[in-house]
Amino acid sequence: xxxxxxxxxxxxxxxxxxxxxxxxxxxxxxxxxxxxxxxxxxxxxxxxxxxxxxxxxxxxxxxxxxxxxxxxxxxxxxxxxxxxxxxxxxxxxxxxxxxxxxxxxxxxxxxxxxxxxxxxxxxxxxxxxxxxxxxxxxxxxxxxxxxxxxxxxxxxxxxxxxxxxxxxxxxxxxxxxxxxxxxxxxxxxxxxxxxxxxxxxxxxxxxxxxxxxxxxxxxxxxxxxxxxxxxxxxxxxxxxxxxxxxxxxxxxxxxxxxxxxxxxxxxxxxxxxxxxxxxxxxxxxxxxxxxxxxxxxxxxxxxxxxxxxxxxxxxxxxxxxx
Length: 322
Prior knowledge:
11 helices; elongated; alpha/beta
């Protein structure tokens, strides 16, 4: 499969201007097939504007984009046949049940035997965890159940791409957990592109992340790469005891770039930046343990919290622009 076939969404300097104000400026995204792609940004960053452009609900002022290799302006109708969409605040006919709602939606896509449609509806209800509430009126649903029903509506046509606009923004922790679990289950069936500002959710389920600020793309990378931070490839080693001799021994290794030392509650934390992951995994812990005067209490690949990374990137881009 070629690189282009592995990319579901690709934008090329996508730009949108409202009354002389740039809501989106020269956006270049690449969304891999069967990924969960987190589209992040502060409120007003341009996330919903981007989604409207991708869905053909708004026309770009400049640049363009393709979905499944098809142009979002010229081939919008063909694209929408293969896309499921959940708006940020989905609305329903409150007297209808979840099953009736999916039946209503399914009839826009299917004209086959009734039994096949009903089987698809039941499968979708099971997938989003609404099997036991399928025949209850929606007016009694919780926020999380409404969002899961919205995902079910978006999924009922077996889309090749799901676009979710803030799918867990207004939910309590349990509702957010339920929605994220549904997204993880859907990963093997489709590509998921979702906007959010809830960073904990992104860190849990996303493969790749893009960060938008004031209409401009300021970062785009696999989540593991973003969480590695500016230190690059680094490990954390926390030790008890006289650590200086061991630190010098580790620092002398040709695969070690640098070691920073931080006191932590009577212990010593090393952040060891390395050139070679394989050598570090093979030797670093052994070197620390070889000193009989030390006790290693913590060891692992260093990861930053996504909130820290996000704020650094967004605030850094503000300074650059100012």
